[in-house]
Amino acid sequence: MRRNQSNRLFFLTIGLFILTLGLFTSVVFAWISQSRNASVSPFVASVKDLAIDFDFYRYNDEDTFDGSSSYTLENNTCNNTTFCYDFLENPTATAVIPQKLKPSDKLSFAITISNRSTTDTTLDLKLNGVMSLGFNQINNQIQRAFKYEVKAVKYLNNSVESADQKTLFSYANTYFVPEISNYTLIDDVSLAKQNDANSVVIIFFDLYFDPSIGSYDENNVLQNNSNAFMNQVFKIDQLLIDYED
Q: Angle at Cα 46 formed by Cα 167 and Cα 81, nearest 5°?
């Protein structure tokens, strides 16, 4: 009798151990999966209930980081070539913003947004999660040396781009500020309903590492150099397409 009880206790203990091990494994797997998904979140996102399609491009200049001087996608997208706008499918932040940039480097981007709803809509484009990594002194954060600027806004009708329409909107042409992480790139971009004229828009924008922005020395005196920026990493987590507030 005691032997049977001991056997039952033994198998119950083994069963509980297997169950606990299984639950622990499931929790660890879920945590790892969540961590991986968080680390590879796409750079471009839109609010969930926004009925749009979008394509994102970065200018491919063979890593010279000279950027674009021609703000158009007509005959200017890459097909196994360089010095053109290269379509990036679901890019991550690290794929969009190189970690090693030097003063005078420029990155050029374009995003095409198409309205897929049956109503007109108005959008904002935002840069979120802007940060400087590698330096604690606030007034020497590398982001203050980066200028963000909308270069052109064009509507696409029958595969033909309009003239630049950016003066119709409130758009950025300024510098990032230390310890502020979220910025509006452009406000109140109107999109007609699907298949109507002006239901597709292309927004071109640049990021420029301005060599004229000096850093501060240990005595908090402004210097005519970028020395304090050189070992830092400039980062942007997300380009968000949002409703007009």
A: 75
Which two structure tokens, joined as six digits, stand for 23?
A: 């639950």
pLDDT of residue 191: 96
pLDDT tens string 152-169: 999 999 999 999 999 999
The answer to whether 143 touches 177, Cβ cutoff 8 Å, is: yes
> Are 82 and 53 contacting, i.e. CB atoms less than 8 angstroms apart?
no
Global confidence as pTM: 0.83
CA proximity to 203, closest of 65, 48, 64, 52: 52
Lookup result for tokens 């003066």: 167
Structure token digits, residue 183: 């910025």
Q: Residue 128 pairs with which residues in a beta bridge?
A: 238
Distance of alpha carbon 105 from alpha carbon 189, whole angstroms: 28
**Separation of CA 22 from chain center:** 38
